[in-house]
Amino acid sequence: MAADTHAKSALHNPLGLLAELTHRCPLGCPYCSNPLEMDKRETELDTATWARVFAEAAGLGVLQVHLSGGEPASRRDLVEIMAAARNAGLYTNLITSGIGVTAKRLAALADAGLDHVQVSIQDSEAKSADRIAGYDGAYARKRALAADVVALKLPLTANIVIHRANIERVDELVGMALDMGAKRVEIAHVQYYGWAIRNRAMLMPTRDQVERAVGRVEALRKEHHGRIVIDAVVPDYYARFPKPCVGGWGRRSLNVTPAGRVLPCHAAESIPGLEFWSVTDHPLRDIWERSPAFNAFRGTSFLPEPCQSCERRDIDFGGCRCQAFALTGDARATDPVCHLSPHHHLVEEQAAIREDREYVYRRL
Amino acid sequence: MGSCIHQGHAGVPPPRPSPKAGTEKGEALVNSPAAPLLTLDACPRLPRGVRLVHNEAQGGWVLLAPERVFKADPIAAEVVKRCTGERTLAAIVDDLANTFGAPRERVLADVTALLQGLVDKKLVEL
Fold first, then answer.
1. 3-state SS class at B21
2. Taking burial as the number of CB atoms within 10 A of a residue's CB, which of A142, A183, A343, A345 is the most buried?
3. Residues of B in contact with A183 (CB under 8 A)
4. How far is B79 from chain A (nearest CA, A)?
5. Distance CA A262, CA A264 (A)
């Protein structure tokens, strides 16, 4: 009972919800964060169910919804879904590859109150960008969409994932984002989950490359201060400390899969043995407060040493559970990205493996 | 009132470090060519993509922006609500001083500090 009361008082309200509307996507990016086992079209939630989920999310304290996928525009009812989120009072962020978002559709989204657009772009050189995306003409379509977004005066973020094929072009990538009219750019080092683990040896940069890229981001941030916000996602495998993944398990955000399963983070299904509840069976509040998967790693009491007595325990929560499992086979372990982890050598060993083979493209 | 906005972080995909604390004042003045200064005849407004909403479960008013969430205390919310782009800073200050029965000079100083901070963060446009 005492433990229950404690758990209850420590429970936060989630701030953000990642709505994976579909796993369908025309692109085949080799670092896709979708799971290897994807939800089929016929299992996708319908419009009305998404509307109910958004209303329940707002009641739970969620402020922002990230409409993602797959490619969210693969859903014919994208405008209705977005409008339902907006009507629930949520801040709506469309995370898109740009493919399938025509000027007409974008205008309809803007009219219905879309707040922000984030477009992914694979490189600053068209040929390389299309090769990474596994889709001819992707680069040109993304640039066209970005121009439409800016013409509608919607705020635009460019999301650029960097890895061995484009990491030398940080200056050009930020220059491209400025040229697109983005107010914000994310320079995101590949995070190794799902498809990215499959392609790890083809994506992995060298330590020298990472250090140069980090230095350039710092310099560009100063140079363009006031013009564009540059956010960086850290290169895990070369970090000293792990990231506080999703701000702590079941603490700040939740993720709903195309079929309605609710996950603490988009990779959580990679951890075997977790019991996820679905929005088709339970109200969102019950799932957040009581579902076994959300309570599996809440707080820090499950953490072993060296985390338990570490001064960073409540800063990074021992890092990422999915990464701990992927590299050590134990989801409770200290994230081996941490230099204090007894398994840190596993990260160093993986970072040293580089192969120049064709990517394994992500396909449904 | 200058410190009435607290930054949270709504970041969902992908995980990223919290945004850096503000640059030191002297540096920001030199390096912010895009951040205009607030004058009495400026008409502050929220740009598209920034919205003030009330959420009971989060305990009050919040200012929402791309990938960012700022909690606003009741006073900050009263100021931001009046940033419609149709009223000058002078008119907003008069209104607040009347509504809350506070000395106008004090209100002007507080509101200017608050709004200039929001302008620098691109949460308010002039």
1. coil
2. A142
3. 66, 122
4. 21
5. 7
Cβ-defined contact of A154 to B10 (cutoff 8 Å):
no
Is the CB of residue A40 less than 8 Å from the CB of residue A73? no
Q: Would an 8 Å CB–CB cutoff place A187 in contact with chain B?
A: no
What per-residue confidence (pLDDT) applies to B56? Answer: 85
Helix axes B89-100, B74-81, angle to 10 degrees: 140
What mean pLDDT comes out for the span A102-126? 97
Nearest to B32 among A60, A95, A225 (CB): A225
Question: Secondary structure of B62-95 in the HEC alphabet?
Answer: EEEECCEEEEECHHHHHHHHCCECCCCHHHHHHH
Domain spans in chain B, listed from the N-terminal domain onward: 41-121
pLDDT band at B38 (very low <50, low <70, confident <90, very high): confident
Q: Does A222 touch chain B (CB under 8 A)?
A: yes
Domain spanning B41-121: CATH 3.20.10.10? no
Tell me the per-residue pLDDT of A266-286, one tens digit each, with 9 for 90 and over. Answer: 999 999 999 999 999 999 999
